[in-house]
Design goal:
Elements: H1 2-18, E1 35-38, E2 41-45, H2 58-71, H3 79-83, H4 86-98, E3 103-107, H5 110-121, E4 127-131, H6 136-145, E5 148-152, H7 157-165, E6 172-177, H8 189-198, E7 202-206, H9 221-225, E8 232-237, E9 247-251, H10 253-262, H11 264-267, H12 274-288, H13 291-307, E10 314-315, E11 322-328, H14 330-342, E12 345-346, E13 349-350, E14 360-365, H15 372-389
Parallel strand pairs: 2-12, 4-5, 4-6, 6-7, 7-8
Antiparallel strand pairs: 1-2, 3-9, 8-9, 10-11, 11-14, 13-14
Helix pairs in contact: 2-12, 4-12, 5-6, 5-10, 13-15
């Protein structure tokens, strides 16, 4: 029987490989950064979500070391036992103030935060309304909640409004990414907030790729669009632009208090190491002061879009550090990625089911730690690759 079960798994893996969909892990052998050592070779990397280049910042290293000296490594317990350290508490207060919301709650990962926000607030009697290109964590949170799930076309708030108007559910929640992780575009958040106000619905915004990048001081999408509403529940991660690890949910105090009592991914898990919270406290300060880094990042985005001249492959319309280059077929996307790697440039190939069928792409991630020279090198390599591989 065991042989049969294992054989079925192997057949599935073999089919995935034949379809050009087999995922493989790469081994990072250096600190995170544009110039990294991966799988034994030095590469110019455009793979990281470290948008401000803070992941290896000396101030964060120092804060982490001081946190370890003061609080040790592991938290030792869940937040509701003895795991809620003063560093955690200070970070929650700092994050709430930074994003201008009444209260915040820490989680070990963004995935856990999204599961908590959706399944902790919604149940089988309620209704969820989700953008079709939402992150997997939002989709899984919806399934876990057992609420009725409605999916609306990407960014189409008018269809969403019709769906909300036809729902008689006692509680309704719209869930969306702010910056979509594979397309790099931004949700029509102003319209979504107004729709949610008209139909008395929550709006859960996953700002994983906006926090630190958008806003006057990197406060994220709410500041970027000047959005204020008690209907908003805000989630952001601390492992991307913040350069550390973890995530948080912010919103009205009663929402946070309710999640403390009902969010299973908060209640039944060990708290993140306090030293990580200490490092994230320092990161919030750095983000607020990183005006030059954000300005440089936007210069790099503009330079890539202006400089890159391709005949067949298409750079999607994105004003964010996520610059997707649509190739089309799975095999060709992998081939292009491997061709770039031969030139010492690492750009990941993204394939279904992460993106829709027929839209396999290279996901170019820019960082403030890149230089114009780095981007120029990428543009030249892509132009040469198109010329050679599509001749």
């Amino acid at each position: 029987m065991a042989d049969h079960l294992l054989s079925a798994l192997q057949q599935s893996l073999s089919q995935r490989e034949a379809d050009g969909l087999l995922r493989k892990r790469r081994l990072l052998e250096s600190a995170q950064g544009p110039h990294s050592k991966v799988d034994g070779r030095d590469v110019l990397s455009f793979c990281s979500n470290d948008y401000l280049g803070l992941a290896n910042h000396a101030d964060l290293q120092s804060a982490l070391q001081e946190g370890v000296k003061s609080a040790g490594m592991g938290s030792g317990a869940s937040h509701l036992l003895t795991g809620h350290h003063r560093y955690h508490h200070a970070l929650e207060e700092a994050l709430a103030k930074f994003v201008d919301l009444p209260a915040a709650l820490l989680f070990s990962t963004g995935y856990m935060a999204n599961l908590a926000a959706i399944s902790g607030l919604m149940d089988r009697n309620d209704a969820l309304f989700a953008d079709k290109l939402n992150h997997a964590s939002l989709n899984d949170g919806a399934l876990l909640s057992r609420a009725t799930l409605h999916r609306y076309p990407h960014g189409d708030w008018e269809v969403l409004e019709r769906l909300l108007a036809s729902s008689a559910a006692p509680r309704k929640m719209v869930i969306t990414d702010s910056v979509f992780s594979m397309d790099g575009d931004i949700a029509p958040l102003k319209d979504l907030v107004e729709v949610c106000k008209r139909h008395d619905a929550w709006l859960l915004i996953d700002d994983a790729h906006g926090f630190g990048v958008l806003g006057q001081q990197g406060q994220g999408c709410l500041n970027h669009f000047n959005l204020k509403s008690p209907h908003i529940i805000y989630m952001a991660t601390l492992g991307k632009a913040a350069g550390v690890s973890g995530a948080f949910i912010a919103g009205e105090r009663v929402v946070i208090d309710y999640l403390i009592q009902n969010a299973r991914t908060y209640i039944y898990t060990t708290a993140m190491p306090p030293a990580l919270a200490a490092a994230s406290l320092q990161s919030v300060k750095l983000i607020g002061a990183s005006h030059d880094k954000r300005a440089h990042l936007h210069e790099l985005i503009a330079h890539l879009q202006f400089r890159l001249r391709l005949k067949r492959w298409q750079l999607m319309d994105s004003a964010t550090p996520i610059q997707p280059l649509v190739i089309g077929s799975n095999d060709e996307a992998v081939l292009v990625s491997e061709h770039l790697l031969e030139d010492g440039i690492l750009v990941p190939a993204i394939r279904p089911p992460t993106v829709p069928k027929g839209s396999a792409r290279l996901r170019i991630s820019l960082s403030a730690a890149h230089t114009v020279v780095d981007v120029e090198r990428l543009a030249q390599a892509l132009e040469h690759a198109e010329e050679r591989l599509t001749a």
